[in-house]
Amino acid sequence: MSALVIRDLRKRFGTTDVLKGIDLDIDSGDFTVLVGPSGCGKSTLLNIIAGLETATSGEIEIGGRVVTAVPPKDRDIAMVFQTYALYPSMTVRQNITFGMECRNVPKAQQAEALERVAKLLQIEPLLARKPAQLSGGQRQRVAMGRALVRDPKLFLFDEPLSNLDAKLRVEMRMEIKQLHARIGASIVYVTHDQIEAMTMATRIAVMNQGEVQQFADPDTVYNRPANLFVARFMGAPPMNTIPATLEGEGDRPVVVIGAGEHVVRLPAPPSIGREWLGKSVIVGIRPECIAEPTRLFGSSTAAGLTITAPVEMTEPTGAETIVVLRLGGQKVLGRVAPDIRLANGALATFAVDTRKLCLFDPQTERLIA
Amino acid sequence: MSVSTLGTPSATRLSPAILAGLKRLPEWLVIWVPLLLSAGHVVVFTAWTTWISFTPSTLVPVDGWVGLRNYTSVLGTRNWKIAFDNLLLFGFGFVVLTALVGLLLAILIDQRIRGENVLRSIFLYPMAVSFVVTGTVWSWLLNPGMGVQKLVNDMGWTSFRFDWLVDRDMAIWTIVIAGIWQSSGFAMALFLAGLRSVEADLIKAAQIDGAGPFRMYTRVILPTLWPIVVAVMVILLQFAIRTFDLVRALTGGGPGIATQLPALVIYDFMFQRGHLGRGSAAAVMMLLTLLGVLLPYGAWKYYMRRRAANA
Ligand SMILES: Nc1ncnc2c1ncn2[C@@H]1O[C@H](COP(=O)(O)OP(=O)(O)OP(=O)(O)O)[C@@H](O)[C@H]1O
Ligand SMILES: [Mg+2]
User: Fold this and answer.
1) Substitution target from A47, A89, A95 for chain B, most B beta carbons within 10 A
2) Would the pTM of this model clear 0.95, i.e. be above it?
């Protein structure tokens, strides 16, 4: 069953179209992450789902019920805000039970729900404190607690981790993921951090300029980005996108990058249509598909294709070394093992994993193979 | 045009600093001269008044020392007792009711109604009117022979009475009414700014929690507003303590001395009865009353800032 269906949702502020026809169908129990650059309309979409903002047109269904005209409190949702939005004058206990108080839930039932959530989030010692007396991470937990007491059809999270420091963020990321696995709730989670999206989501909706660019599982979004925007947005460092031409050599198409002495030829994905032969394309290759020559990709035991290219610069990160190299005259990023040291300006050999090449149409920027 | 091109090497080095100094000279003149003058006035005249209050001065200031005699004789007058009782009543009624009316107006305007700017200006306008004008206009409105009572009587309700202005026991409330009219717009403006600065997410969270308008205000919005409430009350209270012109114009302290306030008593001692010593003693006591409000408020603000800095 669908937890949330959005049909042709549009939102306009004055003369600017912020959402330009969003269609999403989110299954019950899914952890859907809305990801996109700042200002692309994620919060606006979430607020419209919550009923805090009205759409210009379009329809929203939550748990099979059209809620377009239903006020937020009756939509059976719970929301966690980026700023946590804890009521400053109330204790943690009151913050968590306030919603039940508003819905006239009997006191005994309130206490029961409070106890369950406090135990789940390990915030029992904090219940008598005011939000001002909590650390960032504790506030975050209380905000989660306020959402969790409700047992709603849909949880909405608006960048709940972006105000935490890096270490706490990683911890909470895992906790939220485990929490989702345990309670099996349907979650729509907004972030502009693509790592959060990749690690937590069961489905990712990549947004840009008020449109959903791709809505798929994390693997697909990462390996088969629907267009150049998604290719360049997901991954850190992002996918290399290089202008190239497609040539036919026998019946095997080949991607040709650069010309003259710098030319690099890579076998094209077999699924590419014949009509692209002789045309220019944009080839997408993930940095991790360019590695030191001894690397074996996937389950193959034979050494794969290798290329020789000049090294421009290296950036050791500790876990690996990012290499900036020139591929057919284009600047490209690769990732090699951390103990490998390459001299700037020298020629080096790299192994290339060609199984995961993506080809894009330079005009429409869509994935073609 | 540049000055530096004309100068010697050393002058070239100096001129930017001098130029910068010259550029800031108007600012200095504008800010510091009036500031020093007014600070000087305040300090000098406060000290002067305090000194006079210990002298036997009557029509003109004279030297001499009478200790607390002026104070005890002022405190012994019926005038001063009534003035102080009135101040308590007026101060409490004016401050609480003005704050309430201001808050109510702010909440109503906060409903994103149309014509908000117009209404806000209308409510704020009385603040721009001097207290004398307010007092005079309200003295006409409340005058039973020509104001509200006459209007209602003329419309047919002949038994209607609204004669607080000439009623010994109720006259002080006419001053409260005029004071509210004058100052509630000011309270409203501050409260509205406070309401508007409540974090938007807080209101969204309460909406999702299902808080109705009443709960939204009483449990979520107003509790975040109380520093502003305190500030407004302190400002209103010091308005109340130094009220003079409003009463002069509205009731003149009457009927009889029913609406005397400390500032009127001071005026009375100093310029009507020609007893500068006693007038000054009364003025010093009024100043002490003001300090009794402002110093605790200052201490409280300091404490809150310290606490916020430590948190
Ligand atoms: N009330 C409003 N009036 C006018 N424009 C608005 C309003 N709210 C949002 N916008 C505009 O809509 C666009 C999308 O805003 P939104 O807050 O949804 O972005 P976002 O994707 O959540 O960004 P971020 O990652 O920075 O939170 C922005 O360009 C913003 O300027
Ligand atoms: Mg946002």
Assistant:
1) A89
2) no
